[in-house]
Design brief:
- The chain has one domain (about 1-50).
- The protein contains one helix and three strands.
- The protein has one helix at about 65; strands spanning about 15-20, 25-30, 40-45.
- A three-stranded antiparallel beta sheet has the order 1-2-3, with no helix packed on it.
- The longest helix is centred in the last third of the chain and has 4 residues, at about 65.
- The protein is flat and about 40 Å long.
């Protein structure tokens, strides 16, 4: 998520699921995009384990869109 009025691409937050293999349920963590290796800014403990799959996928546009005419 971008901060309001952000100028740089990394000016915001990253939200991701983190798996705890010992406790089993997952946590939703919020990280500062400029310091992803630092401590999480916030977290939400989930009551169950969230499946660690991407909720979407990226595909390149069809060739007809990529070609310059």
């Amino acid at each position: 998520m971008r901060r309001p009025n952000a100028v740089r691409a990394d000016d915001g937050w990253i939200m991701a699921y983190a798996e705890d293999a010992i406790r089993n349920p997952s946590d939703l963590v919020i990280l500062d995009a400029q310091d992803v290796g630092g401590n999480s800014m916030a977290g939400v403990r989930q009551p169950v384990r969230a499946p660690l799959i991407s909720p979407g996928s990226w595909m390149p546009p069809p060739l007809s869109v990529r070609r310059k005419r």
